[in-house]
Amino acid sequence: MLLLLLLLLLLLLLLLLLLLLLLLLLLLLLLLLLLLLLPLLLLLLLLLLLLLLLLLLLLLDY
């Protein structure tokens, strides 16, 4: 009986550890995705700023 309880506890601990590991992996993946998307977002922002500047120049030209 005691052995069974211990085994169950161990299994539960292992499951918890696995879940934690999975969560960590997911977080890492998210971070990687964010790092990959960051330059794209910055580029998009830069393009938008350039477009606004161009528009402003066109408006001032008139």
TrEMBL record:
It is a multi-pass membrane protein. Keywords: Membrane, Transmembrane, Transmembrane helix. GO terms for cellular component: membrane. The keyword Membrane applies. It comes from the Eukaryota. Coiled coil: none annotated. InterPro entries: MetI-like. The chain crosses the membrane at residues 36-60. Its main location: membrane. GO terms for biological process: transmembrane transport. It is found in: Membrane. Residues 1-62 form the ABC transmembrane type-1 domain. This is ABC transmembrane type-1 domain-containing protein. It comes from Dreissena polymorpha (Zebra mussel).
